[in-house]
Structure formats: C-alpha cells, structure tokens
Amino acid sequence: MKSTFDNVAPFIQTDKDANMFALRDAMNETGYLFFRGLLPAEDVLAVRHEVLQLCSEAGWLDPSRAIDEGIAAPGQEPLKEGMPEYMEVYRKVLKLPSFHDFPTHPLLMNIARQLIDGEVLVHPRRIGRITFPHFESAATPPHQDHFYIRGAVETYSCWIPLGDCPMELGGLAVEPGSHQQGFLEHSVASSGVGGKGVPVDENETQWHSSDFAAGDALFFHAYTIHKALPNKTNDRLRISTDNRYQHEGDAIDPGALKPHFNLQ
Predict the structure, then answer these.
(1) 112 and which of 60, 65, 178, 245 could share a cystine (Cβ 3.0–4.6 Å)?
(2) Overall fold of domain 8-250
C-alpha cells in the first residue's frame, strides 16, 4: 500500500498571463489550472485573520500563540461539518463580508471570464472549510463537484487555501484528465466531508498536487475527480475556500443559490 504522497506528482503550473485560448486548452487537457501567486498574499491573509478570529473566540485556538498561526488549542477535539459546535462557528464565517466577497476578487473573476464564454455568475453558495488535525477520516473522498452542484456542466470550482498550505496540511489533489470520463456514479460511501465518492484505486491513480502558498489558486472542471489530502500536522488548522463560477444564463440548481447548508 502506498503512503499518502507516494502517488502525487506536482501540479502543472499555469501562466496567469496566458490568453483565454491557452487557458481553455489547458483546462480541456488536464481538467484544472494551477496558478502561483494569482492573488496578492495580503488579500488572502486578511480573510484568513477574520476566520481565525472566530475560531479563537470559539476556543479552538491555542491562546499562547498568535491567532494567524492557526494552532489548535491543546486538547481541542477535532470537528467537522455537521457537528453542532462546528456549524455554530461556520455560520458566522459565512456572514463575514470579507469571506462572502472573496470569490468576486477581480483577479479571480478575470480567470473565470476567460474560461466562460459570456457573463459570469458566481454561485451565491459560498463554501469554506476548517480542517482539524488528527481527523484523517474527515478528509473529503475522491469525487466530482457536479454530483453536488448539478446544474450546468460547464461550471468551474476554485479552491484556495487561506494561507500557506503545505501538502501535509491537507491541500487538494486532482486526477488529471479525469473530466474526460464524463459524469461518474458516486457509489462509494465515506465518513469524510461530503459523504459520497467515486471508486478509485489509490494504488494505481496518479494524482497532482503541490504545496500552496498564500495567493495560489486552483480552478477545475465540475467533472474533474479531486480529493482532500488529510491534515497530517500535529496542531494546525487548515482554512480554505471553495467557490463556483458558471455562465450567467445556464441552468443552476436552486440549492446553489442558497447559503451553504442553508445557514442564515
């Protein structure tokens, strides 16, 4: 059995100054675009600070360390989506203006416009994740976003960690070219976030992933198979955002127009 990182190759880096034809060609080939330094790090870290401030107020962070380090409090039990204590804090995260506005950053919208032929709709269902250490079973299993998004097939997700995210902290991994298989049955039950996945032979599948720095961004197609790597650090929280872009006039599932988990 291979270890978590044995079958992971580095992302193919995308030139953030490439024209729309080059971006679309790359997306069609690999199913993803990975940008180094697409956003100013300070813009990302500002949102990170506000999210971690809420985590600190909830008692999740070590009070002896700086908030922006994101160090879990000693003895803090790991939490995940669906748990009442987690959802109480997550509701507040979704109401942060900085978090809500983040996916409309001009530099993200610029990439989305080049991928999408027409006016771009950013899904109102903003998504964030706070991933605790010592909770590997909660990692999101291999899946396609279309299983959860529905609506237009030509929808693109953008995953961005709020802060530096080495692979051991639990970044995202994609299976290059997997979008070309079309929509797959999600027949695998999982204890991880989302709960459903596609059958994947982890010993044979070649994943792409990399360490992320603050400001890096990953766009991928709704059919691209991807998963979360487990947070293998001793005490750090991984904070990330996950947002979707599509053509304004295309079909959209009503759920994508509501807050995540319908948290008001």
Answers:
(1) 245
(2) Jelly Rolls (2.60.120)
